[in-house]
Structure formats: structure tokens, C-alpha cells
Write a structure and sequence with these properties.
Elements (H helix, E strand, L loop, with lengths): L2 H9 L2 H13 L11 H5 L2 H13 L4 H19 L4 E5 L6 H4 L7 E6 L1 H11 L7 E6 L5 H12 L5 E5 L8 H10 L5 E9 L1 H10 L2 H5 L11 H4 L4 E7 H7 L5 H7 L16 E7 L1
Parallel strand pairs: 1-2, 1-4, 2-3, 4-5
Antiparallel strand pairs: 5-7, 6-7
Helix pairs in contact: 2-4, 2-5, 5-13
């Protein structure tokens, strides 16, 4: 098993953790989104991971909730602008095909490791997606297999939306750079990707326990958004997650205070203030 395969395998555990916070958000009377399947998908492992990470991040999931909502909105806007396909790489336990208001004719393709997709298929078989959903087991660490998957997934599309939610921060810069090359195709009109600064990675590394120790953040570009610009990508949207969570009224009092302070330059996030963002890119 390659290093990237090991990373992707361990990162699969985070899918259950993310599902916990989607379930918690869905239970709120002012929920930003409703995911009735999230609690089931989280299972017993998800809450255990959430309890472990709470010692590091605090007992809240506003970064995950804000990221989810931001990408939901980006997809909705792209569909209104003619998006004809959505491709979700390392899709994990994402349930957007079941919960978003999607046109029935839309083709949505999920790619992930075989074991996780098998589990997901088993759990979600009783439920009906709102569009044409296809799942593909693919070794995203294999460049040849990844390109073959993209060739197949993009066939017949002219304005595709690619999602790599919660993925690139676990990769090496050269691996992310390779994705920027593989995605630079005329069929791909949008790419939603989230990034974090070195400050967040170092805080998680210092925690030295549980999932945070086993799945460190390794892609923390010092030039932030400019990493993608240097590879030929143009940001259509740069959404800092802290400020988005503030707009969504999901921040704790301490973080509300930090959200009002001057924020880092997205092209020079620096080494002092924690910073993360969801980017919507085109090329």
C-alpha cells in the first residue's frame, strides 16, 4: 500500500466524524441544511471520534457545518449556471445526492475506496437519491487509474463541477499539484476545494492524540490561494470558513471575537492566525 493509499484509508474514518456534525446541525430548529441520514451513517464510531477531537477543537463543529453549507450553495449556483455533472472525489459518507434539491436528470458520480463505498451502498440502499447517482471504486493514488476514471466520468459532460471536500489537506503538495493538472480539462468548469493554514496543522499536531495524530494535515501552502493560481486556476470565490460561520451564526463567543479581527491575506495566510477557506476555482 502506498503512502497516499494509507492516508486515504485513514482519512475515511473522518467521514463518520463529519457525519456527526451534519446530524447535530440537522436537528437544530434553525438548521442550515437537513441531512436525515447523517446520524445513521455516523454509527457508533463517529461520536467516539467526535468526543476525541472535542478535546482539541472544542465541543463544536462549526468549521464542518460552515464548509458543508458553503459547498451546498456553490453547487446550487453552478446548477443554475448550467452545471451538467457533479463529480465528488473521496466522497466519503456525503449524502448531497439524497438531500439537495437536484434535477432528476443530473448525473452525480462519487469516487472513493472500495470498502467505504460498499458500506455506504449497503446503508443507503433503502433510500432513493434525487438524481442519477453513480458510485465508482477507484484508487485515487494511482495516476493512471485516476485519469481513466476522469475520462469515463466526464464523458458527455461540458460543464462539470468537481468536489474534493476534506481531501487535499491530507496530501503532499506535489500530489495536490498533480490534481490541478488532472482537473485542467475543458469539461470541468468548477472545482470546490478547502484548504487550511500551517497554524491549524500545527495545533492539531501538538494535540498528539487520537485521529488528529493519525491523520495530520500535510498540505498547508504558505501562499494559500496563490498555490492554485500558480497552477493556472482562477478563484471565483474565496470563502474563509471562520467568517462564513459567523454569518451563519454558528460561532461560539470566543470565535465571534476572533472573526471580527483583521484576517490573513488569503495569498499569504501567515504563521500566526488560524485560517481556512473553501475555494471555488475555474481554469
Amino acid at each position: 500500500m502506498t503512502e497516499m493509499q494509507q492516508i486515504l484509508s485513514s482519512v475515511s474514518d473522518t467521514a463518520r466524524w463529519v457525519a456527526v456534525y451534519r446530524a447535530i446541525e440537522s436537528a437544530r430548529p434553525d438548521a442550515l441544511f437537513h441531512d436525515p441520514l447523517a446520524g445513521m451513517l455516523a454509527g457508533e464510531v463517529g461520536p467516539a471520534i467526535a468526543a476525541d477531537t472535542a478535546r482539541v477543537m472544542g465541543d463544536h463543529g462549526w468549521p464542518i457545518v460552515a464548509r458543508t453549507k458553503l459547498i451546498d450553495d456553490m453547487i446550487g449556483a453552478a446548477l443554475a449556471d448550467g452545471c451538467d455533472r457533479v463529480i465528488n472525489l473521496a466522497a466519503g459518507l456525503d449524502t448531497r445526492p439524497y438531500r439537495l434539491d437536484l434535477p432528476p436528470h443530473l448525473t452525480w458520480i462519487e469516487a472513493d475506496l472500495p470498502a467505504l463505498l460498499d458500506e455506504k451502498k449497503r446503508l443507503l440502499d433503502p433510500y432513493t437519491p434525487r438524481c442519477r447517482l453513480i458510485r465508482r471504486a477507484v484508487d485515487l493514488a494511482d495516476p493512471v487509474a485516476r485519469r481513466a476514471f476522469l475520462n469515463n466520468a466526464l464523458a458527455g459532460s461540458s460543464r462539470a463541477f468537481v468536489i474534493t471536500e476534506g481531501l487535499v489537506m491530507y496530501l503532499q503538495p506535489d500530489e495536490v499539484r498533480q490534481l490541478t493538472i488532472d482537473f485542467r480539462r475543458e469539461e470541468i468548469a468548477w472545482w470546490a476545494v478547502d484548504i487550511v493554514s500551517i497554524v491549524i496543522a500545527e495545533r492539531l499536531e501538538r494535540s498528539g492524540e487520537g485521529l488528529m495524530k493519525n491523520t495530520p494535515f500535510t498540505f498547508t501552502p504558505p501562499n494559500g490561494v496563490a498555490f492554485f493560481e500558480d497552477e493556472g486556476w482562477q478563484p471565483l470565490e474565496i470563502e474563509p470558513i471562520l467568517q462564513a460561520a459567523g454569518r451563519f451564526r454558528r460561532l461560539t463567543p470566543m470565535y465571534r471575537f476572533f472573526s471580527r479581527l483583521p484576517q490573513p491575506n488569503p495569498r499569504k495566510p501567515g504563521t500566526v492566525i488560524p485560517w481556512s477557506a473553501v475555494l471555488l476555482l475555474t481554469h
